[in-house]
Amino acid sequence: MLTILFDGVAYGMLLFVLACGLSVTLGLMNFVNLAHGAFAMAGGYITVVLVNRAGLPFLAGLVLAFFATAAIGAVLERTLYVHVYAKSHLDQVLFTIGLVFMSVAAVDYVMGSSQQFVQIPAALQGQFVGRYRLLIIGICGLLTVALQFVLMATRFGSRLRAAVDDQRVARGLGINVGAVFAITFAVGSGLAGLGGALGAEILGLDPIFPLKYMIYFLIVVTVGGTSSITGPFLASILLGIADVMGKYYGGHDTKIGGIVIHIPDIGAFVIYTIMIVVLILRPQGLFARGTAR
User: Fold this and answer.
1) Which of 74, 141, 181, 267 has the least C-beta neighbours within 10 A?
2) Each residue of 129-173: pLDDT tens digit?
3) With contact defined as beta carbons under 8 Å apart, do 235 and 286 qualify?
């Protein structure tokens, strides 16, 4: 049970880093970016190239993956995304889904369709208490605290919330709304890239990565709500533990009364059930405020 909880927390932390950028863009910027997984995939492949082929240290690869993906996000935000902010959510969904399929085709052409993994250092490959998962928990925990602090206790966080609440008034107060949104989008993309780099060893990388894990990102945001970082963080932990427990207890044979019964893999069933129940009982999210702004 302790092993399941440990692996579930590590998986949940990883889900949070992968999805927190989406919760920021959707909850604070009111922009539906379904191409968020493409930035995670980019960070993973950047780390594969830097570590596996160029021979850079793993931790250096993580840092460079964050900044490289953030730079890609900043360029795309200024050239493409900025023109879709004022569009309807349907237009945003169609636009970002198109970007997903373009990224899938591009990665399949450049990197190939086979699944790839990042070579982690030997010091992190020990099985005792899962050193690599312990690293994931530590990094993700620090990022969670840093994000909450930036959004709630800094001048930039105040400017971001003001720009989201009323762009016209924010501009009247001298806030550069475009720059605030560009920085926010870039940081969210960088966090996705970092999550993709950290998760490459556990989840694996292939061209359909954005499509495969898109539903997980959306479930985290749906269950946790978009009014704060705390909600998606707690939702990620809950879903990570539920998914690991479902996969551990499912997918094997058990004997009941002399009859061998095959228990199917119920990991996906558990998390989808949680999402449906939350949508019915609390459409604004399990950890969101009860009243909308």
Assistant:
1) 141
2) 578 888 888 888 898 888 888 888 889 888 888 887 778 888 888
3) yes
CA–CA separation, 155 vs 114, rounded Å?
45
Contact yes or no for 92/84 (Cβ under 8 A):
yes
What is the SS3 assignment for 130? Answer: coil
Closest to 282 in 3D by CA, of 292, 271, 270, 293: 292
Task: List phi, psi (to 5°) of 254.
Answer: -135, 150
Residue 32's SS3 state is coil
- Residue 80 phi/psi, 5-degree rounding, is -120, -55
Predicted TM-score (pTM) of the model is 0.86
Q: What is the pLDDT of residues 224-247, one digit of tens each?
A: 876 677 888 888 898 888 888 877
**CA dist., res. 86 & res. 21, Å (int):** 20
